[in-house]
């Protein structure tokens, strides 16, 4: 009997603490929803005393904790007044308990910010149609407030700049107030999985490593990809993230990492519900699916919840479905190389990398028709397709397969060109290896004798392109 009493007291205590937490959140929401001249001043107070987290290419997150509010109420009397009116005792709450978050958009774009808010509100409205007892069967979606634009003070602007956030031309930044998600996105989690297996860091080390740039750098070495995105614009960086996903899925699977089944089930139910309601996320990929507790929770066998974030892109329902492909690929018992999973991966890649615009397709079709009786021109077009694979990797591979499926060129012709490329690469590599051993005048003589191999034959500069051609494209094209 005493145990039952203690349990009831504990539940009551938790309920009381949650009440205080929600009341504290309501204070933040009240200030953020105000439309008056004091809004910017209040925003600066919050920005100055909150914790800032880099969220990659799209945004930075300000996290508000009890400690932040305690400092803010000393600076802004109105905060203290609101806390008093609601009888919120911050001393009862955990100092690190996250109350709310402000998502600061790195690219200040009012239409994009407004679209994300509207799309997220639409997703939340769909959940309102469901029985509350059934909500636990679906992925979580953070609550969100209307977007706010304000001018950060010098201190806040400096902190934002360190996270690559630059104000718009009018000096303002776009902000979305929303629930703080205490977890990690699946992209980070998969990076940690392969780093633990092949990157020389322990799980304990990785629990405390949250810097996206460092995680990605370490993962890219394992994946055999360039480690820098210097010189890329936002769209190119985004495309780079997508291009890496196929490799990351395979290596995470090989590392023995598995996504908890209940996560996959909840995401699947959520997508089914969205289809029923004709709703599209628009930008659903590994960075936009978070798991509460992150990598540590999964390693320790604790229950995790999927949280879907960053709504409002221009993608299709097919892109939403691709996330389900990815989750299932990670958990594929036979690995990502068996025929069925290869087909899923190909579908995923095609969805992620939408084919060329209609005009481009029409131009390409006309070029192949013009080259029907012109062998040299046709060969140049096929060489161009091969170049797409060398330059774009997974994206180029998907494009080549689409061109073949469209009947613009035969699988045999493309496969033969890939074989020619591999042979030329082998001959050139052999010649380069030989010349590296030669010293003195003999080096020039060898170069002259093997000038064709060293100058005319194509060289595959990124070794993983070879496996892409040998392990995926040639089998897909019906060649061994």
Characterise the protein shown here.
With 480 residues, the chain is α+β, with helices and mostly antiparallel strands. It has three domains: 2-111 and 144-180, no CATH class; 185-352, no CATH class; 358-476, no CATH class. It contains 21 helices and eight strands. It has helices spanning 2-33, 39-49, 66-75, 77-85, 110-128, 154-161, 186-198, 203-207, 212-223, 234-254, 261-276, 294-299, 317-330, 339-352, 358-370, 375-392, 394-405, 411-437, 441-449, 451-456, 464-476, and strands at 51-54, 59-65, 98-105, 148-150, 173-178, 183-185, 289-292, 306-308. Strand 1 (51-54) and strand 2 (59-65) form a beta hairpin. Helix 7 packs across helix 9, helix 10 (234-254) packs parallel to helix 13 and helix 11 packs antiparallel against helix 13 (317-330). The termini are far apart.
Strand order of the largest sheet: 1-2-3-5-4
Tally of helical segments: 21
**Helix percentage range:** 55-70%
pLDDT averaged over residues: 79
Keyword list:
single chain; 480 residues; alpha+beta; three-stranded antiparallel β-sheet; 60% helix
